[in-house]
Amino acid sequence: MALFLCFLFLIVSSAAACDRCVHQSKVAYFSRASALSSGACGYGSMAIGFNSGNLAAAVSSIYKDGAGCGACFQIRCKDTNLCSSGGTRVIVTDLNRNNQTDFVLSSRAFMAMAKKGRGQDILKQGIVGVEYKRVPCEYKNQNLAVRVEESSKNPNYLAIKLLYQGGQTEVVAIDFAKVGSSNWGFMSRNYGAVWDSDRVPSGALQFRFVVTAGFDGKWIWARNVLPEDWKVGMTYDSGVQITDIAQEGCSPCDDGIWK
Questions:
Q1: Alpha-carbon distance 48 to 68, whole Å?
Q2: In this predicted model, what pLDDT tens digit does every residue of 34-62 receive, in sequence order?
């Protein structure tokens, strides 16, 4: 198991570190935010409330089979006459299957790249050239949360979705055990941000998350997350915050014109 985790850290975390470099691409937009709320990450209607509706669908190299769900990116368009220098920050909630652009943004996020009063002008462009980089997600005074999905059945089958994952991190494995027990089982990624297992014991549950950030990987232990009588549709505080920032892993890391 230890050798497997070391290999996993090297493969996944190196990609995460390179996300910090500035990339050049194009972005389009969805006319309806609901198109992103029903996305591949599985956030459902909750997504519309994320980040003031500044959402994005990302290509597979960023989506990473669901590991990129919830990642934050700063995106700005290159047209300095039309767009602000700061751009907009988005959260990945879906998979972009359009290979012509790295992201498809919600219309709110797309307009947020424009200078004040130019939102409708940028919408008329449809697709714009941009530069982007991954940035840490920040949830002040908010711990990592576990939402129990409606398909869960207490005991035995449990499906969870992770919310408010901070820093510049990716969760690549999840273990569970009854509180007070050292008999750990593992969950598998079902799809997007949803993990599940059909071998969950009865009783209160603790979790261990394998988190990567750049070239660093570690266990984060949430000692008492789900109560014995956990309910579907409920969101539970893990009691831990994730704030790790990825170390640089690209050589050289070209910042383009980003200052």
A1: 18
A2: 676 678 999 998 888 899 999 999 999 99
The two tokens of residue 251 are 């050589």
Running along the chain, 259 residues long, what does each successive block of 10 average in pLDDT? 41 51 94 74 90 94 95 97 96 91 96 97 97 94 96 97 94 97 97 97 97 82 97 98 75 54
CB 194 within 8 A of CB 159: yes
- Neighbouring C-beta atoms of residue 79, cutoff 10 Å: 17
DSSP letter, residue 71: -
- The answer to whether the CB of 179 falls within 8 A of the CB of 239 is no
What are the residues whose beta carbons fall under 8 Å from the beta carbon of 30, sequence distance 6 or more?
Answer: 36, 57, 104, 105, 106, 107
Amino acid identity, position 82: L
Q: φ, ψ for residue 109 (rounded to 5)?
A: -70, -40
Residue 192, Ramachandran bin (φ over 0: left; ψ between -120 and 50: alpha; else beta): left
